[in-house]
Design goal:
mainly alpha
Length: 507
């Protein structure tokens, strides 16, 4: 099957420049938004497996875990209130991302990042100080607002600041920071669980303030992207000066001209959420919905949110379960770093497909072992428990170099400037919607589906891998403002978008 591939050279419009220390530092600060997201993902699963936390806020779950031997292994943690603690963040993020779209479009990417860091900082403080379930949930909602703003703006910032040839590596820095956040949270949970007196969970929740402070303070000093400067101020000279600074060359006329053309189209569109429904944006709209949907139905949140609970289910102790979560976090971070090195060389599609195959087979084997060895009231042997841990690591590695980073990279680089902020909000909203659904239903699903839960997500992995193979064109090395050409050269999408650019000119 032929898939249209475009590089800057093939388009006849090469950009000058190199990787500068200025752009590296700017993107490192912005990518801290990934740390706050990852930290929250990792911390919630750890504290919900701590006996002292459950005893204080979810006593009915604590009693089932400690006292009731008649409940199925798969059902001990089934509690809608417990899942609400985890999932409330994502429904708040879903709503806030649409407000973030307006801020990002009107005031720039940096402003949204600043709001996100400040909201997350307040949520961390409230969570660490909580003495009842209401404070706990309100703190999670504030964290959700922070993540909603950060996830809407950070991937856009990274894609717009990065040189086209290295955009994949730069943008994957977001997911790398998500992995660092998860790993840090798992390490902190492992340490705080050992604190005598049962108050270690407070440290776990409050430590989210550290990356939030880094992001908030850093955002004050971050430069705005040239794309955003053009979009909300239309200052050609200022955009040119920023381009020269981040590219390390005076020769930026070609890229500047593309920015001016994209900005003119963007400024002519007053209702981007309405315009994105037009046929010429149909591929981008499909990807804005399908990619985040599939990312959540890989089943990764089975691991990310509830890894310690899952390891408790298969018979590991509380401390061993938290340590096992550290191991999977380390694997995820390492594999994402590998993705950074490969994504601009082998391309997005190859990593998607290889990762999908790897995830599918590991999920099927995990489900088979749990079905055959665990049962409702039995105990899995330590050998099988550690085999499951190994297979989970293989699964996490597959996600770490495919749907993890690429689920954020691809949507952030394919949207034209005129719909970029709106489309990214749709992308984040869909992501958070299905994160909420998976987080809210997983413990109940585990109770009812038992080992079949892994076959359920494995089936989705097959479907999403086929989707990528047939419908996603390769986008490596394509300048972000020339991205629309990949759809006009793709065997399927060219029938829908035709042969005109978004500005209406014939190609």
């Amino acid at each position: 099957m032929a898939v249209g591939i475009l590089t800057a050279a093939s388009s006849g419009r090469e950009y000058g420049g190199r990787i500068t220390s200025f752009v590296i530092m700017s993107c490192m600060v912005a990518a801290t938004g990934g740390i706050i997201f990852g930290y929250d993902i990792g911390i919630s699963g750890g504290v919900t497996s701590m006996a002292s936390f459950l005893e204080k806020f979810f006593p009915h779950v604590y009693r089932k875990m400690k006292e009731d031997t008649h409940i199925s292994n798969y059902c001990k943690f089934d509690s809608q209130l417990l899942t609400t603690f985890t999932s409330s963040l994502y429904i708040a993020g879903l709503i806030s991302t649409f407000f973030a779209s307006s801020v990002t479009r009107a005031f720039g990417r940096r402003s949204s990042i600043l709001v996100g860091g400040a909201a997350f900082l307040m949520g961390a403080a409230l969570g660490g100080a909580s003495f009842n379930i209401y404070m706990l949930i309100i703190g999670r909602v504030l964290l959700g607002v922070g993540v909603g703003f950060a996830n809407q703006s950070v991937p856009l910032y990274l894609s717009e600041m990065a040189p086209p040839r290295y955009r994949g590596a730069f943008n994957n820095g977001f997911q790398l920071c998500v992995g660092i956040g998860v790993l840090s949270a798992n390490l902190i949970n492992y340490g705080t669980e050992k604190i005598k007196g049962g108050w270690g969970w407070r440290i776990s929740l409050a430590m989210a303030a550290v990356p939030a402070s880094m992001l908030t303070i850093g955002a004050i000093f971050m430069p705005e992207t040239p794309n955003s400067i053009m979009q909300h101020s239309n200052d050609h000279d200022k955009a040119k000066q920023m381009l020269q600074k981040i590219r390390g060359t005076l020769n930026v006329e070609t890229e500047l001209q593309d920015l001016i053309e994209a900005s003119n189209v963007s400024n002519s569109i007053k209702h981007p959420f309405k315009n994105i429904l037009e046929a010429k944006y149909r591929p981008q709209l499909v990807m804005a919905v399908a990619i985040p949907f599939f990312q959540q139905f890989t089943g990764i949140n089975v691991i990310s949110f509830y890894a310690p609970i899952l390891f408790l289910t298969i018979g590991l102790g509380e401390s061993a379960s938290l340590l096992s979560a550290v191991v999977t976090g380390l694997v995820g971070t390492t594999s994402t770093f590998i993705s950074m090195l490969l994504v601009d060389k082998v391309g997005r599609r190859t990593l998607f497909i290889v990762g999908g195959i790897q995830m599918f087979f590991s999920q099927v084997i995990i489900g088979s072992i749990m079905a055959a060895e665990l049962g409702d009231h039995g105990e899995i042997t330590k050998e099988y428990a550690y085999l499951v841990l190994l297979l989970i690591c293989i699964y996490v590695a597959g996600f770490g170099w495919s749907w993890g980073p690429l689920g954020w990279l691809v949507p952030s680089e394919i949207f034209p400037l005129e719909i970029r902020s709106a489309a990214q909000s749709i992308n984040v909203a869909v992501n958070f919607l299905f994160t909420f659904i998976v987080a809210q239903t997983f413990l109940s699903m585990l109770c009812h589906f038992k080992a079949g839960t892994f076959f359920f997500f494995g089936g989705w992995v097959v479907l999403m891998t086929a989707f990528v193979y047939f419908l996603l064109p390769e986008t490596k090395n394509v300048p972000i403002e020339q991205m629309e050409k990949v759809w006009r050269e793709h065997f399927f999408w060219k029938r829908i978008v035709g042969n005109k650019s978004s500005s209406g000119t014939l190609i």
